[in-house]
């Protein structure tokens, strides 16, 4: 059930140069599809309105200089050489940076965190061997940990970046496909073209989103060849245009041409930066998709192929335009006009395929980041379909897919030109980059423990560049830039309402949990009849007894002979190793047969709740009984500290030398005992049913009490498992503010009623489920 043990672990990726080069080739289709298609619309968006192409060529050379240095400073210098190093155990993206900060300073937004979580291998790995914090770093960490306002601001900052990524998931497919299809305008009259361009783009977009449920692995092998062909195509056309039209265009790479450009165009030149900004769309994907590849492969692919191809493509377009100053309409500044006539149709086909690949990458990235948000309690639960059994990152979310499609079609039909689409896309892209810059400056001080001077230099240098582009994009608010702001605002409201409601629900659970001493005072039978079977009480609490259980036992006279309080929670790491999956402990003396089991998953983990999970759960409790019985006996004298005595237990596959669980049908199977293993069987029964047996290692010896406890657990497992689930309704208590009533009574309840049920009960048999309803007044 743990797919993270597959071939995507980082150490596997870095075995050899052959592996690195293979990953570099594969990254072309997944990571660089969006970035590589930017030449389709950069010059067209830049010269759309604010500046004009003149005989002096100062405008076109100035734009080329801006494009070159923007590509060099942001994707190459910032991302390739700096940001890629800030990975969260191999994962990248906005939430990976936030997760990294949460582990180095206690600013985590997850309510049910434990000290035991800090002992996870992935949690500690990045801090091994690090130097002592500087004085400023220590003060900064202390300040963040003391002030809840700063912690909330940090979370909101990460959420803003996430919302802009989702907005980019709407805008990138629209502008990429629309720009690729715009090549048809050179092959037909303008009167006919306007009736063809939008329908063709919409048909392609509908087909793109309709095929998402098949998963990218079915057509993924085509992605890298398509982008590779596209990059070779635009670089070859660029070289042809440079040689044929203006071999001296390389001189425009000098920063001096940026100064001449701004001196001549002034305010118009500054406003045109919103179009130039589009040359770095997709740069964030290098960091966001880091979990699928490795730093070396992404760096090699960008520096050796993507970067040179893009520079040649932009230089080639500038060389062509420097010799063609008479234009009939704005589309003559576009990409296709610089393509030789005989190659336009083949290039058009390749461009459409490359645009689809680039759109696919951002759509998959949107699915991935929403999954991360949902795992960390910042987004309503959605249905997550894993389209590949081998590649954990390839997922499909139906609700998000169709929402993106409708929004994407609305943008395409509503705008109908690359100018306003570019304004919208540019603002989304630069906002994500600004958020990354801010979070990176904190990572430099808190995680890397470098000098604050380096952090200030980083945020000042890159922040100034990005702020310049941000202001140029924001000024186009009424000309399309309002779209990502509106989308981000809607998604941010949803995330904040859900997170606030989730925190309030947990706070209510904590305040109303039942004392363990009260439970133990009922005696070993808990004051009720104990019937055969295992009762799993699902709770968000990591300590104490949930209120739903006391509500249950006061209304029903019987309960199961083995009772497990089960908590399935997320921790701020990408993945939890199977060896560290479970935390198991006793509640009270062992004759009570009360256990607490905490199951931990990372925000990139894949977990399927099926019969295999039940087997792992029972096996982990059995292994805890075998190996931890002495610790538990010592804890009996101080029942209030039961949570401090929990033991880390792995899944069945991780402790092959420990207890193994075997299940078969009613027929008696002869023992396969050897000198190393012996069996504990359940007693014979009259009617046929599933037989359960524990295969216990011969050494070390287990005492009689542990053997009896294992016998009872085995009998209970054989009788079956029942699931007790809480079904809560939240209401703001009397005297609450109007805003709180609006958020809790209407906002959170609307999201709760319309989102998916918790992931754990989805596969629980209905005949084995009992829901306990309660009204929470928060």
UniProtKB/TrEMBL annotation:
Residues 23-520 form the K+ potassium transporter integral membrane domain. InterPro entries: K+_transporter (IPR003855), K_trans_C (IPR053952), K_trans_N (IPR053951). It is found in: Cell membrane; Membrane. The chain crosses the membrane at residues 60-81, 153-175, 195-214, 221-243, 268-288, 300-320, 345-370, 391-415, 427-446, 453-475, 481-501. It is a multi-pass membrane protein. Keywords: Ion transport, Membrane, Potassium, Potassium transport, Transmembrane, Transmembrane helix, Transport. Residues 533-777 form the K+ potassium transporter C-terminal domain. Pfam families: K_trans, K_trans_C. Coiled coil: none annotated. Belongs to the HAK/KUP transporter (TC 2.A.72.3) family. PANTHER family: OSMOTIC STRESS POTASSIUM TRANSPORTER (PTHR30540), POTASSIUM TRANSPORTER 6 (PTHR30540:SF98). Potassium transporter. This is Potassium transporter. It comes from Hevea brasiliensis.
């Amino acid at each position: 059930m743990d797919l993270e043990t597959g071939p995507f672990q980082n150490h596997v990726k870095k075995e050899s140069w052959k592996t690195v080069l293979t990953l570099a080739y594969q990254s072309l289709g997944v990571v660089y599809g969006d970035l590589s298609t930017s030449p389709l619309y950069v010059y067209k968006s830049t010269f759309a309105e604010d500046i004009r192409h003149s005989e002096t060529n100062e405008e076109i050379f100035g734009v080329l200089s801006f494009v070159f240095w923007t590509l060099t400073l942001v994707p190459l210098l910032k991302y390739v050489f700096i940001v890629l190093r800030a990975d969260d155990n191999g994962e990248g993206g906005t939430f990976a940076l936030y997760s990294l900060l949460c582990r180095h300073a206690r600013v985590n937004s997850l309510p049910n965190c434990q000290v035991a979580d800090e002992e996870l291998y992935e949690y500690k790995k990045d801090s091994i061997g690090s130097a002592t914090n500087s004085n400023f770093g220590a003060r900064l960490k202390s300040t963040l940990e003391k002030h809840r306002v700063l912690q909330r601001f940090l979370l909101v900052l990460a959420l803003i970046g996430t919302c802009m990524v989702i907005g980019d998931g709407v805008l990138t497919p629209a502008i990429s496909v629309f720009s690729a299809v715009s090549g048809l305008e050179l092959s037909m009259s303008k009167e006919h073209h306007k009736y063809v361009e939008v329908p063709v783009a919409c048909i392609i977009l509908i087909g793109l989103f309709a095929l998402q449920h098949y998963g990218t692995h079915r057509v993924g092998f085509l992605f890298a060849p398509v982008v590779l062909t596209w990059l070779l195509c635009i670089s070859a056309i660029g070289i042809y245009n440079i040689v044929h039209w203006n071999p001296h265009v390389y001189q425009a790479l000098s920063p001096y041409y940026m100064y001449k450009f701004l001196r001549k165009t002034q305010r118009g030149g500054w406003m045109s930066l919103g179009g130039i900004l589009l040359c770095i769309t997709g740069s964030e994907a290098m960091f966001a998709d880091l979990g699928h590849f490795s730093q070396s492969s992404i760096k090699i692919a960008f520096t050796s192929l993507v970067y040179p191809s893009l520079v040649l493509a932009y230089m080639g377009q500038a060389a062509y335009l420097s010799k063609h100053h008479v234009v009939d309409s704005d589309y003559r500044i576009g990409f296709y006009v610089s393509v030789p006539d005989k190659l336009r149709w083949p290039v058009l086909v390749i461009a459409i395929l490359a645009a689809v690949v680039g759109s696919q990458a951002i759509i998959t990235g949107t699915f991935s980041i929403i999954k991360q948000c949902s795992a960390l309690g910042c987004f309503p639960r959605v249905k997550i379909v894993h389209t590949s059994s081998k590649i954990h990152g390839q997922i499909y979310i139906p609700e998000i897919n169709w929402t993106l499609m409708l929004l994407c079609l609305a943008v395409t039909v509503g705008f109908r030109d690359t100018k306003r689409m570019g304004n919208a896309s540019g603002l989304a892209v630069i906002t994500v980059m600004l958020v990354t810059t801010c979070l990176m400056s904190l990572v430099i001080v808190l995680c890397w423990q470098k000098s604050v001077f380096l952090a200030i230099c980083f945020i000042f240098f890159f922040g100034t560049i990005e702020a310049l582009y941000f202001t140029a994009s924001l000024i186009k608010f009424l000309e399309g830039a309002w779209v990502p702001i509106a989308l981000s605002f809607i998604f941010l409201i949803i995330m904040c309402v859900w997170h606030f409601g989730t925190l309030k629900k947990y706070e209510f659970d904590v305040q109303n949990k039942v004392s363990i001493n009260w439970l133990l005072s009922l005696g070993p039978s808990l004051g009720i009849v104990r019937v055969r079977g295992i009762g799993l009480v699902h709770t968000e609490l990591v300590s104490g007894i949930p209120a739903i259980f006391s509500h249950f036992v006061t209304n029903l006279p019987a309960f199961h002979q083995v009772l497990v309080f089960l908590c399935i929670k997320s921790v701020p790491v990408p993945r939890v190793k199977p060896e560290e999956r479970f935390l198991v402990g006793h509640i009270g003396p062992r004759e009570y047969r009360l256990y607490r089991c905490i199951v931990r998953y990372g925000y990139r983990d894949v977990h399927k709740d099926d019969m295999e999970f039940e087997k792992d759960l029972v096996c982990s409790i059995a292994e805890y009984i075998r190996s931890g019985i002495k610790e538990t006996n010592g804890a009996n004298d101080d029942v209030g500290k039961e949570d401090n005595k929990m033991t880390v237990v792995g899944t069945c596959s991780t402790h092959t030398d420990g207890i193994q669980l075997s299940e078969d049908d009613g027929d008696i199977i002869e023992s396969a005992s050897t000198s190393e293993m012996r069996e504990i069987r359940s007693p014979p029964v009259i009617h046929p049913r599933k037989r359960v047996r524990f295969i216990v290692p011969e050494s070390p010896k287990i005492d009689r009490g542990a053997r009896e406890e294992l016998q009872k657990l085995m009998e209970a497992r054989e009788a079956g498992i029942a699931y007790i689930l809480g079904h809560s309704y939240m209401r703001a208590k009397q005297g609450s503010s109007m805003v709180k009533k609006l958020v809790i009574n209407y906002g959170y309840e609307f999201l709760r009623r319309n989102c998916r049920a918790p992931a754990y009960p989805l596969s629980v048999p209905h005949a084995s489920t009992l829901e306990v309803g309660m009204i929470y007044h928060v």
